[in-house]
């Protein structure tokens, strides 16, 4: 029968074959349309079934079904399918113990029993480790000896170190831990301590939060500087904040060894560059500044005036503004603003002159203010742009799904490259990137987005030059979640000391966690409580990065 069909097809003329193929293509398209309709109807039926099940559970008074979120891009590309173990042959994971083996035993108590019947045989002991905390007030009266000197002065015996306004160092450390790491408000801390028998007010709690702020701020700034210089990559992000009743922004800087937060009224590139400089404005017109101004399309006449001036370094913003006004930069009404571009360039020149960043790459989510120096983009945010599209029909939905799967596949290839960098492999990946993002799907919005991602090729493929940098900003989002929680619980800060204390202490807590240091021990060492010695954090950051 097959040979007869072949003979009949061979006897057809070319025109008849073309007509037959066209008819078959039309039939395939019809079947494809029917299949898409059936798939959509099946999905709708499943959704309706789930809705009805939820309604039945609600009417019966049963708890709602748990909602399981699908795994994200990072988990979906951790390992290729060929490398994943066979779940059927994989033994169940071993249960984790309580971790008591790390504890030091303070005392041992032997318990005996009197209920054993006669003729019983002794079987030794069964050990159980019990942890407990003694939380009670400890009130001390210090009688300070006083002497009157012949010249009329009064000499009084000094108090022990660590006492702040009638509060001892242990209470000081507890308040710092509860507020910054435990995310408790001052009111709740007062309630807790008062219930424990202490006489303390909100004013005293606030005083304890800022009593040692200059010392902590100096160490945090030094750790920030050391982290910027020693890190291969600095991941950045920002979020909203409240200060003095106004909307502000908190910018996060971080790597594997440090975290720092800076809160200010804006999140422009000027503010970002000032934060990189340590919160101060220093302006330097050098080769790096001139290169920045040229890249930002500042007029050549303005560049010549700035680089040819007698003074090229300015220690404060007032002197810099006066210099720009004298050169006529503030009077120009063009786009881009010459004074703004010149200020950004001079700040960048000061950063390069002080070598604040070293060879670090700045990794961001494509926010414009972070695009300075060696810059890389987060792949998760790039894929999220495609994920957020709202297609209007099945063809567009299919195009979006194909592009997303292709990006995930390419992302997995980049992760494999990071494990084993190879120059020839890098050339192949660049060519594949072009093939993925130069394609056209017929979905105008998606094609426009692919064109936009293609324009960011150098930033997205920075990992091919620097395999040590991450492919995403997940670490930044994890760090900045502490600020978001703080904002939701405490609202905002009122005083300048409160704003600085929030940024400094949250940054120190995160840095200690990354350095595998107990924040509790760190606070105790800095306040003066006997215990483990914690070296300066900048020293630990430099040693860890070496």
List the helices and strands and how they pair.
Layout: H1 2-10, H2 14-59, H3 73-76, E1 146-148, E2 154-156, H4 169-181, H5 186-195, H6 202-210, H7 213-230, E3 233-243, E4 246-254, E5 259-264, H8 269-276, E6 283-284, H9 287-295, H10 300-307, E7 313-314, H11 317-326, H12 338-353, E8 361-364, E9 375-377, H13 379-387, H14 394-419, H15 423-437, H16 444-455, H17 457-460, H18 474-490, H19 496-514, H20 519-527, H21 537-545
Parallel strand pairs: 3-8, 8-9
Antiparallel strand pairs: 1-2, 3-4, 4-5, 6-7
Structure description:
Among the domains are: 169-220 and 478-545, no CATH class; 232-257 and 264-370, no CATH class; 379-471, no CATH class. A hairpin with a 4-residue loop joins β4 (246-254) and β5 (259-264). It is extended, with a radius of gyration of 33 Å. α9 (287-295) packs antiparallel against α12. With 546 residues, it is an alpha/beta fold. The termini are far apart. It contains 21 helices and 9 strands. Helices cover 51% and strands 8% of the residues. Strands 5-4-3-8-9 form a 5-stranded mixed beta sheet, sandwiched between helices.
């Amino acid at each position: 029968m097959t040979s007869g069909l072949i003979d009949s097809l061979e006897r057809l003329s070319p025109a008849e074959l073309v007509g037959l193929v066209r008819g078959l293509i039309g039939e395939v398209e019809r079947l494809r349309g029917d299949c898409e309709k059936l798939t959509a109807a099946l999905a709708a039926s499943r959704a309706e079934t789930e809705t009805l099940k939820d309604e039945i559970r609600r009417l019966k008074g049963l708890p709602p079904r748990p909602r399981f979120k699908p795994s994200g891009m990072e988990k979906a590309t951790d390992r290729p399918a060929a490398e994943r173990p066979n779940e059927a042959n994989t033994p169940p994971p071993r249960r984790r113990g309580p971790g008591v083996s790390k504890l030091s035993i303070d005392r041992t108590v032997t318990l005996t029993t009197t209920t054993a019947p006669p003729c019983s045989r002794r079987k030794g002991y069964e050990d159980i480790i019990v942890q407990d905390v003694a939380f009670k007030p400890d009130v001390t009266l210090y009688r300070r000896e006083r002497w009157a000197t012949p010249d009329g002065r009064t000499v009084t015996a000094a108090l022990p170190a660590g006492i702040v306004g009638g509060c001892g160092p242990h209470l000081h450390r507890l308040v710092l831990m509860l507020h910054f790491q435990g995310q408790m408000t001052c009111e709740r801390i007062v309630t807790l301590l008062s219930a424990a028998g202490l006489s303390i007010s909100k004013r005293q709690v606030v005083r304890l939060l800022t009593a040692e702020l200059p010392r902590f701020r100096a160490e945090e700034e030094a750790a920030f500087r050391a982290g910027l210089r020693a890190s291969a990559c600095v991941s950045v992000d920002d979020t909203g904040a409240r200060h003095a009743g106004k909307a502000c922004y908190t910018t996060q800087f971080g790597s594997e060894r440090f975290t720092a937060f800076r809160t200010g009224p804006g999140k422009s590139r000027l503010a970002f560059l000032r934060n990189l400089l340590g919160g101060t404005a220093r302006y330097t017109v050098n080769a790096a500044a001139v290169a920045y101004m040229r890249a930002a399309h500042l007029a050549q006449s303005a560049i010549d005036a700035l680089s040819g001036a007698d003074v090229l370094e300015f220690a404060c913003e007032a002197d810099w503004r006066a210099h720009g006004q004298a050169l006529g930069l503030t009077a120009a009404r063009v786009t881009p603003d010459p004074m703004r571009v010149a200020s950004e360039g001079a700040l960048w020149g000061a950063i390069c002159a002080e070598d604040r960043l070293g060879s670090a790459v700045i990794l961001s989510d494509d926010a414009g203010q972070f695009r300075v120096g060696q810059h890389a983009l987060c792949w998760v945010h790039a894929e999220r742009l495609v994920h957020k599209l709202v297609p209007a029909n099945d063809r567009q939905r299919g195009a979006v799904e194909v592009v997303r799967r292709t990006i995930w596949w390419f992302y997995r290839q980049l992760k494999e490259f990071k494990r084993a960098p190879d120059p020839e492999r890098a050339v192949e990946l660049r060519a594949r990137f072009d093939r993925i993002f130069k394609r056209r799907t017929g979905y105008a919005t998606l094609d426009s987005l692919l064109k936009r991602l293609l324009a960011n090729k150098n930033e997205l493929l920075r990992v091919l030059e620097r395999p040590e940098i991450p492919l995403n900003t997940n670490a930044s989002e994890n760090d900045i979640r502490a600020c978001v929680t703080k904002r939701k619980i405490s609202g905002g800060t009122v005083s300048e000391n409160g704003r600085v204390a929030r940024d400094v202490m949250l940054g120190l807590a995160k840095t200690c966690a990354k350095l595998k240091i107990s924040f509790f021990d760190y606070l105790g060492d800095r306040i003066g409580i006997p215990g483990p010695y914690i070296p300066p954090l900048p020293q630990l950051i430099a040693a860890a990065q070496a």
